[in-house]
Amino acid sequence: MEDRNDLIEHYFNLGYEQKEILSCLLLIHDENLSSRQLRRILARRGLTRRKHVSNLSTVVNRIERDLQCSGRNIGYRSMWQRLVVDHDLVVAKETVRHALRILDPEGVDERLRHRLQRRQYKGRGPNFLWHIDGFDKLKPYRFCIHGGIDGYSRRILWLEVGISNNEPAFMAKYFVDCVKAAGGTARIVRADLGTENTYVAGIQRFLRNDSCDSFSKDKSFMYGRSVSNQRIEAWWSQLRRRCASWWMEHFKELRESGLYCDSNPVHVDCLRFCYMDLIRDELHRFARLWNNHRIRPSINCESPSGRPDLLYYLPEVSATQNFLVPIDNDDVIMCEEELCDMNCTSSCSKEFCQLANIIMNEETLMLPKDPMEARNLYLSLINHIDNL
């Protein structure tokens, strides 16, 4: 009983409406509740969006802090979601819209001027087609982002950052971790034509070798040009506008100030050491918020509206089905063993990491919690190493 109520509170805190909470309880957790029962539980736990509204000054202060980093590139709906999900604030979307208009009028106008119209995309259902690709806008600073998206629901399957997007084993590790978490693989995986995707292609075809559907074996992996990998290519524009562009400007300022040189291996390792975990956390947060935000109806009737997580996990609501292909656990273990030595989360060389930790212990320096702290740590480490 208490576990059920905790689930209700979890979905409420994600910003789900009551009918969405009821659907999740029934179709995912096999808990059948009436609307009246749900309202009673919400009231008993004091979960309401109309009362206990957060103090306006608290909301404004939080918005101002987010505007100092990647939050300056998102609209009022995404900002509202950050406030509710990440910061546990209770605030109306309209309040956030007015606050952004006052606090960031130039940003609001800029977003209004760059609205895009895209061609239509048709997907059959969740896990029918996965799109995977690398995002290279931070590559000049040696941060290589890679992601996978479900074509139908637009749910982000993984969004990771590492030291390379050219190492096939890295892409394969991301893919196998996703397959293991999902309990299966997609009918089809699509990627750009390139050597970095050869391991993923081999693993997908191996996992689908015993299937008997029309997309099994070699047909289960499709190569194509970037313009054909439409779903994730379009999504990268969301990542750049709402998240990555801030980091691009941040690192550009370091380089133009003469504080970072990409031909200096010490600078490269130091930048990764100071920033990699922060960027990874930001990407994971961005993916989590995206998966729970509401996609509005569009002229493309083939792409359903709703929250990506709900479209992915509750295909019945959209009158479709889950196309996930279950995979034998022994096959997944075999793939993991082939990739056992791959550490996709390492930020720099082992030797530099040891040196940086020694300096931090001697100088009582702490790991950074935000970009400004990371910048200060980077400058301190570079200065100390230059004086060795």
Percent helix among the residues? 40-55%
How do the helices and strands follow one another from N- to C-terminus?
HHHHHHHEEEHEEHEHHHEHHH
Overall 3D form = globular
C-alpha termini separation: 61 Å
Major sheet details: 5 strands, mixed
**Oligomerization state:** single chain
Count of separate DSSP helical elements: 15
Side-by-side strand order of the widest sheet: 3-2-1-5-6
| Annotation, overall tally of beta strands | 7
* Low-confidence blocks of residues: none
Helical/strand content category:
alpha/beta
- Percent range for β-strand residues: 5-15%
Mean pLDDT: 88
Query: What does the radius of gyration come to?
Result: 23 Å
Write up this protein:
This protein is an alpha/beta fold and 388 residues long. Helices cover 52% and strands 9% of the residues. Strands 3-2-1-5-6 form a five-stranded mixed β-sheet, sandwiched between helices. Strands 4-7 form a two-stranded antiparallel ribbon. A hairpin with a 5-residue loop joins strand 2 and strand 3. The termini are far apart. The model has no long low-confidence stretch (mean pLDDT 88).
How are the elements arranged and paired?
Layout: H1 2-13, H2 18-27, H3 35-44, H4 56-66, H5 76-86, H6 93-103, H7 105-113, E1 129-135, E2 144-150, E3 156-162, H8 168-182, E4 184-185, E5 188-192, H9 198-207, E6 221-224, H10 230-256, H11 265-292, H12 308-313, E7 325-326, H13 329-338, H14 350-363, H15 371-386
Parallel strand pairs: 1-5, 5-6
Antiparallel strand pairs: 1-2, 2-3, 4-7
Helix pairs in contact: 1-2, 4-6, 5-6, 6-7, 8-9, 8-13, 11-15
